[in-house]
Amino acid sequence: MGSVAVIGAGPAGLMAAQVLAEAGQAVTVYDRMPSVGRKLLMAGRGGLNLTHSEPLDAFVKRYGPQATRLAPLIEAFPPSALIAWAGGLGQETFVGSSGRVFPKALKASPLLRAWLARLRTLSVEIRTRHDWTGWDKDGALRFRTPDGETVARPDATVLALGGASWPKLGSTGDWPDRLSAEGIAVTPLKPANAGFDVAWSDMVRDRFAGQPLKGVAITFGRVRVRGEAMVTRHGLEGGAIYALSAALRDAVAKDGSAKLWIDLRPDAAADQLAARIAQQPAGQSVANRLRKALHLTPLETNLLREAHGKDLPSDPAALATAIKGAPLTLTGVRPLARAISTAGGVAFEGLDDQLMLTARPGVFVAGEMLDWEAPTGGYLLQASFATGLAAARGVLGRLESGVVQ
Ligand SMILES: Cc1cc2nc3c(=O)[nH]c(=O)nc-3n(C[C@H](O)[C@H](O)[C@H](O)COP(=O)(O)OP(=O)(O)OC[C@H]3O[C@@H](n4cnc5c(N)ncnc54)[C@H](O)[C@@H]3O)c2cc1C
């Protein structure tokens, strides 16, 4: 039996701990926070979208440029395995209308409770309030604790420190400099699944912040996404925006801004919309005609004004065209701290196929701190769990071959 330190008690670290303990290793999990799995619990507030039900070949493409690196890891722990694992912890799942998979409880706390109980039966030791600060000159892990500094000398280590969004939940993204100093390549951390700035008029900001645009289609470049967007005081966020956010983020970084197009009635063609608008008496206000003909909400009508100017055309065909394509300019990306997830991280070039750092043999990396990104839809948790499992298997392979850190 070997001793393994897992640093970070999120989905990736806890999955690594489970796999290692089931294989008979002595596992200690360290987390800097007073309790574990805080981001997982936060994800539970949105229903806990564990994974997605689409076919595996489409699923792995969601990881964009990193699809080839992640595909074998996801195939080794696919959505069906994640669903079975959750079921084993008493959490039956269902497939929502968009193909997303959720636990029937629609929250994370029962899953996390059952998981921690399972880990206890496997004798996994969890040490909270242990903040990993790096390695000492002899290669021991250093931790800051309320009782002072402590060190650990495990046979192998799994780092699962998370990204840098929602830092108050424990993952602050303070590790890139620490790893770079060891010669480990880290791609700069960037917001993923983030909101964007829009220079709203005071009226839109004050009256409509917090209101959703439902059932819209948003186009950026050649990509069109159906879904929901939320108007915020700063701009726009929500599922349809997140799905485009990697491309939008990169365009804003390159050009200073990015223009997207919102189709407020994607299920109807422009001539159908025009015909319905034309049935309304021309004497009414534009807002009333749009409300009666097409059920446009006050937010939607005002969005048209933001996009096309205050005086909307009265001609039905021109109005229909305006509804099918309202341009909005995004002027910035909301901060990483407010994003759902983090792009960038430990570069795959510095890892072997088992997720071990070539610059630090015996140290494996898992979860969101790796350099991949994906849209919302369950892809983030699926990759976190799958890479946690892959790192644990890597540790086992190394320990079984008799190598210690
Ligand atoms: C609001 C919100 C909603 C989300 N909803 C979903 C969803 O529905 N579906 C989905 O797939 N994904 C969702 N996500 C993303 C998902 O939660 C993350 O991708 C996932 O938690 C990443 O897992 P991880 O184990 O890599 O990192 P984390 O869950 O971030 O865990 C990392 C752990 O490491 C600890 N740590 C960090 N540094 C140190 C250190 N130096 N010493 C000791 N401990 C340390 C942290 O305290 C933390 O507990 C959501 C994220 C947010 C913010």
Plain-language structure description:
The chain has 405 residues and is of the alpha+beta class. It has two domains: 3-192 and 339-400, 3-Layer(bba) Sandwich (FAD/NAD(P)-binding domain), CATH 3.50.50.60; 196-333, no CATH class. It has helices at residues 11-22, 38-44, 56-61, 67-76, 79-88, 109-121, 176-180, 202-208, 239-255, 270-278, 286-294, 298-308, 316-324, 379-400; strands spanning 3-7, 26-30, 51-52, 93-95, 100-103, 125-127, 131-135, 141-145, 148-152, 156-159, 186-192, 196-197, 212-220, 223-231, 235-237, 258-263, 326-330, 332-333, 341-346, 363-365. Strands 17-16-13-14-15-12-18 form a seven-stranded antiparallel sheet. Strand 13 (212-220) and strand 14 (223-231) form a beta hairpin. Helix 4 packs across helix 14 (379-400), helix 10 packs across helix 11 (286-294) and helix 10 (270-278) crosses helix 13. The protein is elongated and about 85 Å long. The mean pLDDT is 97. Flavin-adenine dinucleotide binds at residues 7-13, 30-33, 38-40, 42-43, 46, 48-49, 130-132, 160-162, 165-166, 170-171, 340-341, 367-368, 378, 380-381, 384.
Keywords:
7-stranded antiparallel sheet; 14 helices; 20 strands; FAD/NAD(P)-binding domain; 5-stranded parallel sheet; binds flavin-adenine dinucleotide; 36% helix
